[in-house]
Design a protein that fits this description.
Length: about 475
């Protein structure tokens, strides 16, 4: 802490404008990139048209009124930052610039801060898993808040894209595919992995996380130039005046986000879930051309909704790909999609007659695969990683709650079922004749329907008194094979 204190004092002496004592807060320029990303988040129709509410009954340790905007003495803020600073390799200093961004998040953009607190529940488990794997401080997750306001569709005026705001050349350098149809800079998992690799590389150059953050924003070339112009100083605050203007607020904003996300309740701010978090968004894996508008027509949704959920597909079309890609759908739409997948596959080719027709679906029996739980992982993050829903993952492993622990092995892909009661299979059945299937661990209605030609999920529900959930291993469910 003594070292950090000396740095703070030195910075104030070198840059009187940065001193927080007895000075009015700085006014941030209207074109500040941090403000621009917050405005982008506010403009999203699924944020913009959702009534804004705050929960003051939970975590409101100060008893604030719902509309109260607390104002704390700067000394209190400085002390809180000092506590956070002692527990991180980042230098979480306090000065006028940092205070100006704290005011931005805690006062001027309160609604968007609450939205970001809600979005963090969705994205932070994924960020932390990747950061931990690469040995990067977990506080780096706050970088995405500064970069994109946790909006996976974010695009800056300079062309940076996604949660981690990759420029096209840098994204490609770190394995993110981008063409006329797909831009993997929007992909949560792939872009997070790329960001970790890039940040690790930058830290290797400077051996300083603040300089790595600056280089992430403006490039190593600009940081090296600022170091030379400052006389060789390798300290962010000493090269501050020599950095590009849009980069100067970058580290201060990062410090402010660290503070706000740890002390949001002290500012009467609480997480507000975005509209789509109210749905349980589910994932399916596809490896064939598909138009999102066809799914919208089939499921009764809207094309805009599906495009918001899948910004990776730039034109709203899944192209012909070599490897399966993830498609995010509202949970209610998944059973309809799976029940009509074959028709959806052919719908694209019917609308594009110049394309070669696909072969019928005939997937090979999957091999069993298990995932070893790592520290900080959640069922939701693991399920999304393997293209499963949380319900499916729990069913595969016989889990009754969402509690998991490090080192636990979870089945994420099962082999072909072995104990199916299908006498005389594959002999055809006459219409009206019943067939009984014995439920195996991990079975789903869709998976069972696929084993019986001509049977849909809706058939299974109708034959079994509307059965939707709760398939229990060993249970017998009725299957009817229509006359072919």
């Amino acid at each position: 802490m003594a070292l950090h204190l000396r740095i703070t004092i030195a910075a104030a002496l070198l840059h009187p404008a940065l001193s927080a004592q007895h000075e009015a807060p700085l006014t941030l320029p209207s074109d500040d990139p941090v403000i621009a990303r917050l405005d982008d988040l506010a403009a999203l129709h699924w944020i913009k048209h959702t009534p804004f509410t705050t929960d003051t009954a939970h975590h409101n340790v100060h008893g604030f009124a719902p509309d109260q905007v607390p104002v704390w003495p700067e000394e209190t803020v400085r002390q809180r930052l000092a506590v956070l600073d002692a527990a991180t390799p980042f230098d979480l200093v306090h000065n006028r610039v940092v205070q100006s961004y704290i005011d931005l998040y805690a006062v001027r953009k309160r609604e968007m801060t609450s939205r970001m607190l809600g979005l963090a529940e969705l994205y932070f488990p994924t960020f932390e898993e990747h950061l931990d794997r690469h040995g990067i401080p977990l506080e780096m997750k706050y970088l995405a808040v500064v970069e994109s306001a946790l909006n996976p569709s974010a695009r800056s005026r300079a062309g940076a894209v996604g949660l981690w705001q990759f420029m096209l050349p840098t994204g490609r350098l770190y394995g993110l595919k981008a063409d006329s149809y797909i831009d993997e800079r929007h992909d949560v998992f792939k872009s997070t992995e790329a960001a970790c690799r890039y940040l690790k590389h930058l830290h290797g150059i400077y051996n300083d996380w603040e300089l790595a953050l600056a280089a992430y924003n403006c490039g190593p070339g600009n940081v090296n130039k600022a170091i030379r112009r400052s006389g060789g100083a390798k300290d962010y605050w000493r090269i501050y005046d020599h950095l590009p203007r849009e980069t100067r607020g970058y580290v201060p904003a990062f410090i402010a986000v660290n503070y706000i996300f740890n002390h949001h309740a002290d500012h009467n701010l609480y997480p507000v879930a975005p509209t789509y978090c109210a749905y349980e968004v589910d994932t399916v894996r596809v490896c064939y051309p598909l138009d999102l508008s066809a799914i919208a027509v089939l499921t009764g949704g809207t094309v805009q909704e599906l495009r918001d959920l899948n910004p990776t597909f730039k034109l709203g079309i899944v192209p012909d790909v070599d490897q399966p890609v993830s498609l995010y759908l509202p949970k209610d739409a998944v059973p309809v999609f799976l029940s009509n997948e074959e028709a959806l596959r052919y719908s694209y080719y019917a609308a594009n007659p110049g394309s070669a027709a696909p072969a019928p679906l005939a997937p090979a029996p999957p091999e069993e695969k298990r995932h070893v739980v790592r520290r900080g992982e959640s069922l939701g993050g693991i399920a999304a990683k393997y293209g499963l829903s949380v319900t499916e993952l729990k069913r595969l492993n016989g889990l009754r709650s969402n509690t998991i622990h490090p080192g636990q092995k979870l089945l994420v892909r099962r082999g072909a079922a072995k104990a199916v009661d299908r006498t005389a299979d594959p002999e055809p059945r006459s219409e009206g004749q019943a067939d009984y299937h014995i439920v195996q661990p991990g079975d789903t209605l869709w998976g069972i329907a696929q084993r019986y030609p001509g049977v849909s999920v809706e058939d299974l529900r109708r034959l079994n008194d509307g059965l939707v959930h709760g398939l229990k291993p060993g249970a017998r469910i009725k299957v009817r094979i229509p006359r072919g």
